[in-house]
Write a structure and sequence with these properties.
Layout lengths: L1 E3 L1 H5 L3 H17 L3 E6 L6 E5 L4 H13 L6 E3 L6 E2 L4 H13 L7 H17 L1 H4 L8 E9 L12 H17 L5 E6 L8 E7 L3 H11 L2 H4 L2 E3 L3 E6 L4 H5 L1
Antiparallel strand pairs: 1-4, 2-3, 2-10, 5-7, 6-8, 6-9, 6-10, 7-8
Length: 246
């Protein structure tokens, strides 16, 4: 998330601004796995979202953005680092059951090898979801979240089967909105201040409110969820960068 240093930007000659924006637009066009959004509200002016296969690629994207002349006029306000992941409660339970029935003990070399082989097959089958492309939608909503782990309610002390059941019901709410919103969930335990990040993409921003409000009544959110700051923005196509900042 970036704030534009308006006084310094306005002080530039129009030809200089055009040259800077042309350079930035060319970089964005060459990197379709980076998108820029014009933010609503006071939290930032621009938000850059980078999807890359690994942390090395993320680092290179961040460095490349910093090398653009436009970055001289951008001031970071915050950032978020996470890894795209899929909710696999049902399949995980199935894998554990199958390996146990084969006589394998958890965390032994044989168990770990069988688990990795199964997970590798799942990663290949779900590659499109694990390595997403940007949906062709107008709006984005990003927010981080945690699962409660306090004295009264602690998600991590709930039995696996019960968590799986609640997550299934929770997911069914999201599926009802599948035609209107694209969800990309990412895990950030050990990477950032919250445990998950959520990207929602839609052409109608009201769907964000409807989806999140309905989920608030679900036990997963009502009893176990904590939410961070919400960021909402409009997608800026490469050709529109000049009109936005010019």
């Amino acid at each position: 998330m970036m704030r534009l240093r308006q006084p310094a930007w306005r002080a530039l000659a129009p030809t200089e601004r055009t040259a800077i924006l042309t350079e930035a637009a060319e970089w964005l066009a060459a990197n379709p796995q980076t998108a820029v959004f014009s933010m609503l509200g006071h939290k930032a002016d621009l938000m850059f979202i980078h999807y890359r296969p690994g942390f090395d690629g993320l680092n290179q994207a961040e460095l490349a953005l910093a090398r653009l002349r436009l970055s001289d006029y951008l001031e970071p306000t915050t950032s978020y680092l996470s890894v795209v992941e899929l909710g696999l409660y049902e399949s995980t339970a199935k894998i554990y059951k199958e390996l146990t029935e084969k006589g394998l003990s958890p965390h032994t070399p044989e168990w770990n090898a069988a688990m990795e082989e199964t997970l590798d097959r799942q990663r290949k089958a779900m590659a499109v979801r694990l390595y997403p492309e940007f949906p062709p939608t107008k709006y984005v909503c990003f927010y981080p979240m945690d699962r409660r782990r306090g004295e009264a309610k602690n998600w991590y002390q709930v039995p696996f089967a019960e968590r799986a059941h609640m997550m299934h019901d929770h997911g069914m709410i999201g599926r009802r909105y599948a035609g209107g919103v694209k969800q990309i969930i990412s895990g950030s335990i050990g990477f950032d201040d919250w445990e998950w990040g959520v990207d929602l993409y839609a052409d109608d921003p009201l769907v964000f409110k409807k989806l999140i409000y309905e989920m608030r009544f679900d036990p997963v959110s009502a009893m176990y969820a904590l939410f961070g700051t919400f960021y909402v923005g409009l997608r800026v196509q490469t050709d529109d960068l000049a009109s936005l900042l010019g």
